Amino acid sequence: MQIRRMGPIGAEITGVDVKTMDDAAFGRIYQAWLDSNVICVRDQSLELADYLEYSRRFGAVHPHPSKVTRHPDCPEITLLGTNKFRADGTLDKEIYRRGAEGFHTDGSYEEVPFKATQLYALAIPSRGGDTFFSSGYAAYEMLPQHLKDKLEGKVGNFKYGGRKQLNLLLDEKDRHVAPVWHPLVQVHPETGRKLLYFDQGKILSIEGLDAAESDAIINEMVGYFVEPPCQYRHKWRKGDIVIWDNRCSYHKAAGDYPPEEDRIHWRVSIKSA
Ligand SMILES: O=C(O)CCC(=O)C(=O)O
Ligand SMILES: [Fe+2]
After folding, report:
1. Which of 141, 145, 208, 218 is the most exposed place for a label (fewest CB within 10 A)?
2. Which residue range is the domain that position 220 belongs to?
3. Is residue 100 within 8 Å of 252, Cβ to Cβ?
4. Nearest CA to ligand 1 atom 4
5. How far is the CA of 253 from the centre of ligand 1 (A)?
6. Does residue 253 line the site of ligand 1, with CB under 6 A?
7. Cα-to-centroid distance, 247 and ligand 1 (Å)
8. Is the Cβ atom of 124 under 6 angstroms away from ligand 1?
9. How far apart are CA 224 and CA 238, in angstroms?
10. CB of 64 within 8 A of CB of 70?
11. What is the pLDDT of residues 98-132, one digit of tens each?
């Protein structure tokens, strides 16, 4: 097995079959993941059960709240990129551009957000469709001192769809879940490194600030998330498994591939338990 760092974040792993990998090899993969925020294991050939079994080595697999995009035979698997054309032939942008609205972290609307998200590539378009990643550690470092001081000890209020209520992938009855609170400056439970926890698409407000100041600070932060630091751009190949650490990373889909081509992934949301 070879592990190759792709830059300040991101690592590529080749020469391994996750179906037969022993615990020692998995330990190296897990450490590479903690060290580099996001990793890609290339050239895999998996059935649904293989994928779930491998995913469970990272933690517990939880069904995603978007029920319409769950795999019909397996609720723990979300399908990305399927059913993107409506019956009348028009493109469903919610599906085609899922995850492309801006850098974000998955599951920040949950009391315990997803530790990791993992995607397995079944079909990749001839061009476009990359995924961009950046580092929550570097995001904290990049903040001007006045924001570091302002955010220290503060909690943010997060909800699926955020301030713009972009929640069309949820069933109507699932759109009214109460927002949850998370500290905006955190220490990663496994690496011990300090990081910024923020999600421009899901944060509503910052506790302890009046509405105008809360909005102004969120808007200032959104500015930094147009081009956040330490990016890794993943160019997909069929058979890739990519997993990112939502506790210390941001990501966004490019949302730019030819719509008539397939870009299909099996996606899982992973928590510690
Ligand atoms: O499709 C992608 O590249 C990533 C989409 C996304 O944001 C996610 O799966 O959480
Ligand atoms: Fe996402």
Report:
1. 145
2. 2-271
3. yes
4. 253
5. 5
6. yes
7. 15
8. no
9. 32
10. yes
11. 999 999 999 999 999 999 999 999 999 999 999 99
**Ligand 1, pocket-test mutation among 257, 267, 268, 269, most atoms within 8 A of CB:** 267
Q: How many domains does the chain have?
A: 1
| Shortest-distance Cα residue to atom 8 of ligand 1 | 99
Residue ranges of the chain whose pLDDT lies below 70? none
For the chain, strand residue ranges (E) read: 2-5, 11-14, 38-41, 60-62, 70-71, 74-80, 116-123, 131-135, 155-158, 180-183, 185-187, 194-196, 203-206, 232-234, 241-245, 249-253, 264-271
How far is it, in rounded angstroms, from Cα 183 to Cα 195?
10
Do the beta carbons of residue 213 and residue 86 sit within 8 Å?
Answer: no
Q: Is 106 in the pocket of ligand 1 (CB under 6 A)?
A: yes
**Separation of 54 CA from ligand 2 center, angstroms?**
20
Instruction: Supply the pLDDT for residue 203.
Output: 97
CATH number at residue 216: 3.60.130.10
